[in-house]
């Protein structure tokens, strides 16, 4: 253990020195912001000590799968919502429960060692017959139940049945979206309060995740979150859930990096109300519904999904769940259930392999962090004493020195290649890991 600690300390020092050297070689300002223009603000950060990168942070939503099948690509967690596990499917008639699908999926996830995040809702129509109908085929509504004791009973039964088997409970899907929730903020706070207390009384070790907020670029989302916070809603959650969908632009290629602004928005709203809790992105894909085919190439699809997970690390999110896995109708598909992985799915496995045993030391991008405007990077250290940089661009490409201690580079979708001391590499939208020793 002491030997590993010494190696990691040496790797941290070497990685810090390397960053200054490569920036200087490229002719950019050394370290930190290093930019005279005060309007250029750094979003980069350094972790001291470095934070271990767990595979559990690389999650997927299970979509359209009901038989318990699970990914064979290397992911670390699953979310259950769009798979016939909604409240309206589990309790189609009052006090008549059908656990068959949820049992299969929870058992399937546990057999693969995948922690389960279960999303609660939608309300069955019997619990609010006059409510606005939901977007699903079964009788359900976007409204809260007329009698919250029905909600209490559902929450208690789920938490009791899956005690110790479901790791986390998300209290509602996209409560800021009018297509998924039609009640008031006050009603959602009360539902969150009741659910939190019930879950913790039944299974104290379970995590409770807030109702998710989506479309953070919209003023009404920020207003909803602010109101929910002011009423104490986030006190009934261990984690805050967001969905990093659409920022008001139509450009798909290059989108993952724009999540930075949305996460910053969420943190700003939370901070204004004194809420300081880890954030999970429990659902995001390259394009909101309806799902068109991904407009790019197979290479660009692999780039997109790996950059999505890298931006989760950059934004210091506790979890990132890509939407989704299993359904052949998805736009950017990782793997259809029972089929081999797509190039994008193989890219996820490759990225997770890169980061096995790694701890993240820092992330930064652009001139504010002494880099070319279009370049992003994160630095990692390993117990072996080696260290690595992962670099990519949102759009375009740039030539940048690998550094004097680099010995190998590996791009997503490609095999490792040796690197000469002082060699420059072309940094593109395909993430590349540069290994040093």
UniProtKB/TrEMBL annotation:
Residues 83-179 form the GH10 domain. InterPro entries: GH, GH10_dom, Glycosyl_Hydrolase_39. It holds the Pfam family Glyco_hydro_10. Keywords: Carbohydrate metabolism, Hydrolase, Polysaccharide degradation, Signal. The keyword Signal applies. Gene3D superfamilies: Glycosidases. GO terms for molecular function: hydrolase activity, hydrolyzing O-glycosyl compounds. SUPFAM superfamilies: (Trans)glycosidases (SSF51445). The keyword Cell division does not apply. One of its GO terms (biological process) is polysaccharide catabolic process. Residues 1-26 form the signal peptide. This is GH10 domain-containing protein.
